[in-house]
Design goal:
By secondary structure, the protein is α+β, with helices and mostly antiparallel strands. The chain is 47% helix and 14% strand. The chain has 12 helices and 9 strands. A hairpin with an 8-residue loop joins strand 6 and strand 7. Belongs to the acyl-CoA dehydrogenase family.
């Protein structure tokens, strides 16, 4: 593994950081989250058109840049550093890999180019508010219990014998960017309890009668969450056959999004640390800068080591997504601890909701609520690795050439 960045990767980071420094400051972000979309549509179009962020990891045949997960992770580290509210994570890291993995040629040709150019945003709706379990980050997703298990609750799918396609019933909470996405990927059960299986369906809001979307109050305003309610809503099966391995595709997407989210959480931690260092250099007590006190230096040094260790883990996970869940646990923990220390080291102003230190604290807390908690990420990774005598089921074990 070559840990050095290429010239292209350095250019992506530098260009994006400069752009976000101009257009994604704390005041701009607060204004963006109060829009109907929950982000700045003008800035999103610029990020899509000029930098091609949504299509970084998509093949060139679908209008993407043909890059790897590493480039997407580096971009998300910068958006995390700026706490940018955007549909990038939900669209490019969650939805696009599932469409690419399971979609028919016609579905991929119709959807992926629009995702790549930013004209279509997408969201993954998982029932029960259990996104981490559905992505196999904190538990096995094969039994489908997280999606209703074929019993009452969750989202149920029924195929119409008259050829009218599929109909969905139920609801999903805590859907990331679900209130504004132009396309919903809905995980639903079909076949009833005896023969239940989880499938993924495409729902186009502009054509879907019986669909209701409600934006929820979230800990972190820069991560808009929604409740999606489906009442006899027409849907299209993602893929060509009902036998498609939706659980396996969700687990694979989970490893990828874990790597990307780990990089973003590292950016969040690094942004909080940088602002804290700048503050303690300027803030004076007893006639000297706060940052000159040895106790403060030690705390900052510990945070720096923690952030850099998390960054190394996140970059490795971008190269090998199987390491994503553990890297995500380390990055989320680093973001939580660093943001908490940032509030402390900012003193009295750090405890006010108006100060930007709290924006970092909310992002760290919100991400762990949505994709964690950390101890469950580590516990499931340990179970899959067989550390406690029960390894990963053979059907979900990752395959590596030469192993």
């Amino acid at each position: 593994m070559d840990a050095a960045f290429t010239a292209e990767q350095d250019e992506i980071r530098r260009t994006l950081r400069d752009l976000l420094a101009q257009h994604a400051g704390p005041d701009a972000n607060r204004a963006a989250v109060r829009t109907a979309e929950g982000y700045d549509p003008v800035l999103w179009r610029r990020l899509s058109r000029d930098l091609g962020l949504p299509g970084l990891a998509l093949p060139e045949e679908y209008g993407g840049a043909g890059c790897t997960v590493t480039e997407l992770a580096l971009a998300c580290e910068e958006t995390g550093r700026a706490l940018l509210p955007s549909p990038l994570l939900a669209t490019a890291a969650l939805a696009a890999p599932l469409i690419a993995a399971l979609g028919t040629p016609d579905q991929r040709a119709a959807l992926l180019p629009r995702i790549a150019d930013g004209t279509l945003t997408a969201a993954l709706a998982v029932p029960g508010g259990s996104l981490a379990t559905g992505l196999a980050l904190t538990g096995d997703n094969r039994d489908g219990s997280w999606a209703g298990g074929g019993r009452a609750g969750g989202v149920q799918a029924r195929g119409e014998r008259e050829g009218d396609g599929w109909r969905l019933y139920g609801e999903a909470d805590r859907v990331l960017d679900g209130h504004s996405a132009g396309l919903l990927l809905v995980a639903a059960h079909t076949g009833g309890y005896p023969r239940s299986r989880t499938l993924l369906f495409l729902v186009r809001p502009e054509e879907a009668a019986g669909l209701a979307r409600t934006r929820l109050t979230a800990v972190d305003e820069t991560r808009p969450l929604a409740r999606v309610e489906l009442r006899d809503t027409r849907a299209e099966l993602l893929g060509a056959a009902e036998s498609a391995d939706a659980a396996g595709a969700l687990a694979a997407a989970g490893r990828t999004v874990a790597a990307v989210l780990a990089a973003e959480a590292v950016g969040t931690a690094a942004g909080a640390l940088e602002r804290t260092v700048d503050y303690v250099k300027a803030r004076e007590q007893f006639g000297r800068a706060v940052g000159s006190f040895q106790a403060v230096k030690h705390r900052l040094a510990d945070l720096y080591v923690r952030v850099e260790a998390a960054r190394s883990a996140a970059l490795y996970a971008a190269w090998d997504p199987d390491a994503g869940p553990l890297a995500l646990a380390q990055a989320l923990e680093a973001a939580r601890i660093t943001a908490g220390e940032a509030v402390q080291l900012h003193g009295g102003i750090g405890f006010t909701w108006e100060h930007e230190a709290h924006l970092y604290l909310k992002r760290a807390a919100g991400d762990e609520l949505l994709f964690g908690p950390v101890h469950r990420l580590r516990d499931h990774a340990a179970q899959c690795a067989g550390l406690f005598g029960s390894g990963r089921p053979a059907a979900t074990a990752p395959h590596r050439a030469g192993v």
